[in-house]
Design brief:
- The chain is an alpha+beta fold.
- It has a domain at 23-415: TolB, C-terminal domain (Neuraminidase, 6 Propeller), CATH 2.120.10.
- The strands form six sheets. Strands 18, 19, 20, 21 and 22 form a five-stranded antiparallel β-sheet that branches. It has a four-stranded antiparallel β-sheet with strand order 1-25-24-23, with no helix packed on it.
- The radius of gyration is 39 Å and the shape is globular.
- The chain starts with a helix and ends with a helix.
- The model is unreliable at 424-648 (pLDDT under 50).
Length: 648
């Protein structure tokens, strides 16, 4: 085999490879399905000189919580506490050296290769009321209560906006009127397939969510991976980072240019990520991957060649499809991991990135104020810079720690911010006052339909199920003195016939009179107890529940006075007006009404002397309202037995 044979061999192999490449490029319906046709020019990077010249101002940053955090990308602070979003869907609170999990935006998962199920919060921001808003790459815009962990979906990932579904929620900015500005990095790929977004045509968007109408409107479209977003201090415009374009767009919200856009700054020496405020009207712009004319990024070099991008994208898509097929036939963790890492940003080793790491500070006019940089390999891939108290915090989705450096060491002492502590609203605290307010209207509504409303009053005073109710039942000593109950027994029917009696009580003290009227009607209702047992249970329980907790203190004094002179009982009404306990009022109206009816109806007492033995089980039925004291419940039996005896 001579030189000609060798040349023919390699020539044939090249032809075969070329045919395969052409087939991969031009065959239809090969993954991915996104459009790859645009030729995009490489950014014209600014030179690393002047305010962009290299320096080591970021050198010596502390590796805070090393090996304790996984991918702390974004920050937010409220009430003197710092929060961060992590890989795996967690949002944690950082207080001193303590890490406190707050909420998980997604579902429980095994590992990071199940990121689509775990969730991935990218941008987080607090509103003025202490509510945390998070842009989860998979689950949408969420509103989170950091005290309870309750989540509410504001923008769903399945919701179409301008004919396309958002696939990669990234960053958010909150306006003072409650509106939300957020970025959709791509409408073609999820975050786990982020590398495909470099090769595909731009589809990122800046979107405005109006809180009043709950609608979304696209402000800027076709951004090459829309990323960080930030409102100006006066909210007259908003800026958004275009990561692979190495530039920032500005959209005017007010003024003569309202509704228009322009380039805020371009040619930055690297790829941009989240944007944050410097607290003085300017902006902090981190470069997650550095790039310049001498060290361009591979993803930006191939942008002018759409066929090459299509070839690379389809090669990765076919590889991913093979692993998906294997996983369907023979599910395994290896296949799932391979599917995840084929198109993920983490497939590229960080050692390939330039050694330079840069943070740029811009004015509100898009001018470079200064830059901070370092060549320390331990400090790389900065996704967000956040000023909190006396330190500058630097996050990264590729690090297992947070970079922290004192503001005094970088000459930013004037940017230190002192934030006053404010209480975060708690949802449970708002409900009890509503229950307490519900107790006031029932007494007004009792005269219309007293029994059913007493049953409705039972839930509000739940904390009032204290021991005093049985003590009030003990104040009614008729069981010990057999003659008085006989007089009281005939008196029970008169309240039905004699309606003016409760009116006299209303004249003396209307509030207690309204409360005293239901008890005699509750006594008249026991006759249906024999017909339907459940109503008496509902009617007997509310009286102790309606009694305020302060009543038992006043009830301790009247019992001895009643034991000394039980038949008179006329001295007791003053405490009844003060205290409003239903059991005491049940005993008092009887003697007032006893003055007239006893001579009229003398024979019934003989019938009513016997039923107390039958009424004892009803008293036991009434006891579940206060199960803690059984002895005192037995004392209250005769009061409720008397009306039943009348019916018998």
């Amino acid at each position: 085999m001579g030189c000609k044979g060798i040349c023919r061999f390699f020539f044939r192999r090249l032809l075969e490879i070329l045919v395969v490449i052409l087939l991969i490029i031009f065959l239809p319906n090969l993954p991915p399905s996104s459009k790859i046709s645009q030729s995009i020019s490489t950014p014209n990077f600014k030179h690393l000189e002047g305010k962009l010249s290299k320096n080591e101002r970021l050198s010596g940053a502390e590796l805070w919580h090393k090996d304790e955090l996984n991918g702390p990308e974004a920050f937010a602070d409220y009430n003197g506490e710092l929060y961060s979003s992590l890989l795996g869907g967690d949002i944690v609170k950082l207080v001193g050296n303590h890490i406190t999990p707050i909420v998980r935006t997604g579902k429980p998962c095994k590992s990071l290769y199940q990121e689509e199920s775990c969730g991935r919060p990218l941008g987080i921001k607090f509103d003025q009321n202490g509510n945390l808003y998070a842009a989860d790459a998979y689950y949408g815009i969420l509103k989170i209560n950091v005290k309870t962990g309750e989540k509410q979906v504001i923008v769903d990932s399945n919701q179409e906006i301008a004919g396309r579904k958002p696939m990669l929620f990234n960053s958010i900015a909150l306006a003072t009127n409650g509106d939300i500005y957020w970025t959709d990095s791509s409408t073609d790929f999820h975050l786990k397939d982020g590398v495909f977004t470099i090769l595909a045509d731009p589809s990122g968007r800046l979107i405005h969510y109006e809180a009043k109408s709950k609608t979304n409107r696209v402000l800027i479209d076709n951004l090459h991976f829309a990323n960080g977003v930030m409102l100006s201090e006066d909210e007259s415009f908003i800026i958004v980072a275009e990561t692979f374009g190495s530039r920032i767009h500005r959209y005017y919200l007010t003024g003569a240019k309202k509704g228009t856009q322009d380039i805020f700054i371009d040619g930055l020496p690297g790829m941009l990520d989240n944007i944050n405020s410097d607290g003085k009207g300017g902006f902090l712009i981190p470069l997650v991957i550095s790039a310049d004319a001498e060290h361009p990024n591979l993803g930006q070099i191939i942008q002018p060649f759409p066929l090459l991008k299509k070839l690379l994208a389809r090669l990765m898509g076919i590889t991913q499809l093979l692993f998906e097929t294997v996983n369907r036939i023979y599910p395994s963790e290896f296949a799932e991991r391979s599917i995840y890492y084929v198109g993920n940003f983490q497939m590229f080793p960080r050692s390939l990135d330039p050694s330079r790491t840069t943070l740029i500070r811009l004015s509100n006019q898009g001018e470079i104020i200064e830059s901070l940089s370092t060549t320390d390999r331990n400090i790389h891939s900065i996704s967000e810079a956040h000023i909190f108290k006396e330190h500058l915090y630097l996050g990264s989705p590729f690090n297992n720690h947070i970079l922290r450096i004192p503001l005094s060491e970088i000459g930013w002492s004037d940017l230190a911010q002192k934030r006053e502590k404010r209480d975060v609203p708690e949802i449970p605290q708002t409900t009890p006052p509503q229950r307490q307010q519900a107790t006031t209207p029932p007494p007004k509504q009792q005269p219309t339909t007293q029994p059913p409303k007493t049953t409705q009053q039972t839930p509000p005073p739940k904390p009032q199920t204290t021991l005093p109710p049985p003590k009030q039942q003990a104040t009614t000593p008729p069981p010990k003195q057999t003659p008085p109950p006989q007089k009281q027994q005939p008196t029970t029917p008169p309240p039905r016939q004699q309606a003016p009696a409760p009116q006299k009580q209303q004249v003396t003290t209307p509030p207690p009179s309204q409360q005293t009227t239901p008890p005699p009607k509750q006594q008249t209702t026991p006759p249906p107890k024999q017909q339907t047992t459940p109503p008496p249970k509902q009617q007997t329980t509310p009286p102790p529940k309606q009694q305020t907790t302060s009543l038992p203190k006043q009830q301790t004094n009247p019992p001895p006075a009643q034991h000394t002179t039980p038949p008179k009982l006329q001295s007791t009404p003053p405490p009844q007006q003060k205290i409003t306990p239903l059991p005491q009022q049940q005993a008092t109206p009887s003697p007032r009404q006893q003055t007239t009816p006893p001579p009229k109806e003398t024979p019934p007492p003989a019938r009513q002397t016997t039923p107390p033995q039958q009424a004892t089980p009803t008293a036991k039925q009434a006891t579940p309202a206060s199960q803690e004291q059984n002895k005192e419940q037995v004392k209250a039996v005769p009061v409720r037995d008397a009306p039943r005896a009348k019916n018998s």
